[in-house]
Amino acid sequence: MAIATVNPATGAVERSFDAHTPGQVEEKIAAAYTRWRSYRTSTFAQRSAWMVAAAELLESEADTVAAVMTTEMGKTLASARAEALKCASAMRFYADRAEGLLRDEPADPSTVGAVRAYAAYQPLGVVLAVMPWNFPLWQVVRFAAPALMAGNVGLLKHASNVPQTALYLEDLYRRAGFPDGCFQTLLISSSDVERVLRDDRVAAATLTGSEPAGRSVAAIAGDEVKHTVLELGGSDPFVVMPSADLARAVEVAVTARVQNNGQSCIAAKRFIVHADVYDEFAQRFVEAMSALTVGDPMDADTQVGPLATEQGRKDVEDLVADAVAEGARVLCGGSRIDGAGWFYPPTVIADISAHMEMYTAEVFGPVASLFRVADIDEAIEVANATSFGLGSNAWTADPGEQARFVADLEAGAVFVNGMTTSHPELPFGGIKRSGYGRELSAHGIREFCNIKTVWVGE
Ligand code: NAP
């Protein structure tokens, strides 16, 4: 894939970039490794000052970087700005908390025959981050903020369609005061990832993206015996039971499905509704989805912009066409919006069955699948009938049902009566084919640490 900014709202190539040469990549790996050997001994206070400076810069530049993100991948300007501010708050979170989250954990020395014994969290080294375009700042920052605060350094291989955002991030950390080499962007293709990952100076990798990309990076890292974190796709269930606040459930259902123009890993994608409230939910949901304003993502009135790539829209079209050919019913939307750009309307599809591709695939666009179920057992069965296990959402006022969903939904997160989202205070990650490892919270900052056992005798 060419490294270029192609505006999804127009299809126009705005800017192209030459990939870094093997010599340039070598220089960057060498700079990262050399820098890490001194950076690892910097104090939390020093790193924290740099991280707060980065947050301040980002806050002051939120409008500018938001316009870059919107131009590169089509999210609405308002959501791009919100993303920039969320990144700044995650930076502040780790600037404030890293030292406490990585404090030595003492063991009772008498039980292990020591004078002193504890677990220490030490940085691993150079971490390669392979990142997707859908939240082009957030996906990177939720790795970089904890990793840099822990004393690691980062090499970013961003998605090929968001090079300007990738270069902005490198520049941001440099201007904030982080020493050269702490955070660098590699303009390379996905086929060049293997060479970087196999380099002895690179200690570990994190990948957010699709299952094939994750499988490839994990296989290479496995061969090199290097630690990885994988944040892969999802097909989150959104279950609605009879006791739910239906008005609120519908409102969140719409936002959860069309956020980021339908291209979020934790978007609710499959709407599983109890038969007692199915008809009412379906009617209100279709009305609300149909009423959304689709258009230029730079326009303040737009609620849904274009899909990020031409191929992405084709993938969505193919899944819808397959479902319709197999007997599914389109309740609204269902065919591309003609004209320039890669627009696809908010769409609701009913009568999905297990043999359709859409039943198991991740639909990365504003297309909702509706399922009618007879009871909570069937709801959980349908919810879990996927190889993914990222987020999940359940709507019920019944405490017994809430406990059942928490216990039985196969996912890395369950949100009850509210929208699934990421918070710096809470861990984020998946099970099954949605990946492994966790980002954010204490778990995220400890992923790229050597948890060193320290035992000191007489
Ligand atoms: P993608 O095609 O897998 O790309 C993600 C990144 O991996 C890009 O930098 C890409 O580079 C690179 N890449 C692709 N194939 C690779 C390979 N074989 N080896 C090494 N690197 C490779 O995914 P995407 O289309 O950008 O993003 C959408 C996917 O990400 C969805 O499945 C979504 O659910 C998932 N996602 C998951 C999370 C999560 O937290 N779990 C969050 C956001 C998105 P190029 O651009 O150069 O191809």
Automatic annotation (TrEMBL):
It comes from the Bacteria. GO terms for biological process: tricarboxylic acid cycle. Pfam families: Aldedh. Keywords: NADP, Oxidoreductase, Tricarboxylic acid cycle. Residues 3-454 form the Aldehyde dehydrogenase domain. GO terms for molecular function: aldehyde dehydrogenase [NAD(P)+] activity; succinate-semialdehyde dehydrogenase (NAD+) activity. The keyword Thylakoid does not apply. InterPro entries: Ald_DH/histidinol_DH (IPR016161), Ald_DH_C (IPR016163), Ald_DH_CS_CYS (IPR016160), Ald_DH_N (IPR016162), Aldehyde_DH_dom (IPR015590), ALDH_GabD1-like (IPR044148), GABD/Sad-like (IPR047110). Belongs to the aldehyde dehydrogenase family. This is NADP-dependent succinic semialdehyde dehydrogenase. It comes from Speluncibacter jeojiensis. The lineage of its organism: Bacteria, Bacillati, Actinomycetota, Actinomycetes, Mycobacteriales.
